Each structure stands twice: as C-alpha cells, then as structure tokens.
Amino acid sequence: MRPPNPIQIVPLRTEALAPVAPARLTYRGGPMLVSAQVFLFFWGDAWQQDAQAGLMQRLNDFFEYVLTSPLMDQLSEYDVQDFKIGHGSRTGAIAVGGAPPPTANDADVQRFVRDQIASNPAVAQPTPNSLYFVFLPPGVTSELDGSSSCVNFCGYHNNDGDLYYAVMPYPECDGCVGGLSVFDALTSTSSHELCEAITDPVPGQGYYDDANGEIGDICSWQTKQLGGYTVQLEWSNQHGACV
Ligand SMILES: [Zn+2]
After folding, report:
1. Fewer C-beta within 10 Å: the chain N or C terminus?
2. Torsion sign (Cα): 235, 239, 241, 243
3. In terms of pTM, does the model score above 0.90?
C-alpha cells in the first residue's frame, strides 16, 4: 500500500534527525530503476551566466561519475527478482532558457518536462529507466504539496505515472547549503534523490520504511567523499547502518 504521504524530500539540514525507530526498508512491489538513465535540465536563463555555467559543467561530470560508481554498486543489496540494480548512464543535459515561475510547483515541473520531451529533439525520450533531474535557477522556490524549498525541503523526487523526475532548487539558505559549498550541497542532495528514485521511483511503492521514509531520508545530511565528490550516505539493511 502506498503510505498517505510518502517522504520523498531532502529535509533542511536543521531538520535532519536520527531515525525515530530502528530503520528497515521493505519492498512494496513497485518498479525500480535497474540502470538509471539520467537526463539533466538546467531551467532558466541564469544557468547561462558564468557562475552557474561552471556549476552546470561540474554537475554533468558528477553524474557521469556517480552513475557508474560504488554508490550504484551498494544499491544491489536491494535487488529483487524483477529488478536488479546496476550501473546507469547520463543520457544528456540541456540548459533551457526563459524564466521558470518564481514559485515552481510540482505541476509546473511536470508540465515543463513533458513539454520538453514532446517538443525538444535534444531531450532523451523516456524509457522505463529514465530519470529527469530539473535544476532550478537562483531565486526560484520549489513547491510540493504546500511545502516549499528552504522552508521544508531542499529537493525531492516524484513520478507522474511512469515519468520519473527529481527537482533540485538552487541551494540559497543555510538549511539547504548545510555548511557545504553550493556545488557540494547539490551533489549531496542529488545523490540522495538519485538513490531514492532508483529504489523507490513511485514514492512508497518500492523500498520504503513507514517510520523513516526512503533510503536517503534515514541518512539525511550524513555525507562521504566518493571519487572526489560529496555524496550522501544511504541506508543499508544489510549493515543496519548508513553507509
Ligand atoms: Zn528523501
């Protein structure tokens, strides 16, 4: 069963707490991404400016790396009969000019991704393993179910039918920078959402813990260095710990 409000967000660092109950993810029978094919959108003119353009390149490099990294290997403990989690790939990236709404809600993002898939030949067409990351520019607030970025969360992933996507507001508050550089905050939050979107692409229907949420929620803002990047720890049932 789908929990009423599955946790699919990265909380603010100030709200990241130890699990309320001993954590254990259980599989709910839904799909998983066995070889995540990640396409990146950088939405808004601001991404063409120098500071953000540099970040965009570094985020591309990060995804190239992380999708074939030990972070993917460690997810294989969650393999089930129909879904064996392996390496993925970055299928492309694009900067889309114009201005997103100052408050981009979940429907705005869904519409943006669907419009891009339908009309932009540079965008990879969806497969059962596709995951679209939408990076928002500075000054744009993300909104989900009445919650907002920098008030309640720092990023989330979701689905619209079999369209899987993650939304990454630009980290502009202490709670979402978390004492890191902007780039490190983005890779940490991206790794959190990536691992969750792989193991629970339809929130609450893949691997989930009713008390503690998804694989990344249990370990929010606990980070490690991997290949020179900052990534978030993820919950391991096998180790009974964040690894
Ligand atoms: Zn999460």
Report:
1. N
2. negative
3. yes
